[in-house]
Amino acid sequence: MKKEFLSIKKLIEKNGYKFTIQKRIILEELFNADIHLTAKEIYSKVKNNNIGLATVYRTMNLFTTIGIIKEIHVDGISYYELKMYSKKPLHIHFKCYKCNSIIDVDNSSVEIKYLKLNREIGENEKLQIHDANIMLIGLCDKCSEDKKL
Amino acid sequence: MKKEFLSIKKLIEKNGYKFTIQKRIILEELFNADIHLTAKEIYSKVKNNNIGLATVYRTMNLFTTIGIIKEIHVDGISYYELKMYSKKPLHIHFKCYKCNSIIDVDNSSVEIKYLKLNREIGENEKLQIHDANIMLIGLCDKCSEDKKL
DNA sequence: TTTAATGCAAAGTGTTTGCACTATA
DNA sequence: TATAGTGCAAACACTTTGCATTAAA
User: Fold this and answer.
1) Which of A16, A122, B12, B94 could disulfide-link to B136, CB 3.0 to 4.6 Å?
2) What dotted CATH number matches B87-149?
């Protein structure tokens, strides 16, 4: 078993749940995909193992609860992504309105500035900010290239 | 008729649609509410006028298309808010995880900094950013007071 | 051997659509 | 009077749940 799986297995068991074959297979797909997946996309990858859609949803909810994955909502649809071991309170995503692809923006210098800004808002508005989801919308590099043609 | 309605009426008609009684009533509720409303909430306010839920949805979609309102997604549910005449490319919302209320963060000094940061991301990641939705999650002032009791 | 987890189908949400009818420009 | 708009009910897409059965600790 992959060494990442061991710590996740422990986390699942620590919370009183069982590390089933289904959870392992779904976890593998999340690791393989390395991008945001919807429940249906995960289901299409695992259904040949006789895993039902309900199990996918239940597993995603469980994984979200214990913090293995993060759920993001885009246009009313849930996408799931591995949180790995970084539980940073900031998630920046970009959605291309043309090709609909969702890109993770991972840029620590920008992230630090965002966190500072959030602190500023928290103080100004008397809010305790625990988490921040930033959804940027526009044209990705590829689609703006296409536009030029 | 309210003077704000006149310009909206013109906008609707300019786009080839008709300014019906239903649209006027729904618009009035949006003005009265002054907060984010779901389609069901709007429906509950207008159904005594014999307006159907489908009409609410159709109207929200039309209003979103022509830019009268803005649609935001929170936990998979659509909320609608008047955009008024400010079509700013940045929308900061705060959701309290305790009382579930959604607060508009309207702070121009913070907004300018956010816009700068978005420009920075756009340049770094080669993205054309047209719009930004920021969802902050935490405890509102009221709920963090309650916690202290 | 206890208890969480599963697959399936049914039920629940939020939203859209087809259709005959209505009302606006 | 032509055409967008309406209410209703049915359809749709995504998600949850009840239940009898299975499998992990």
Assistant:
1) B94
2) 3.30.1490.190
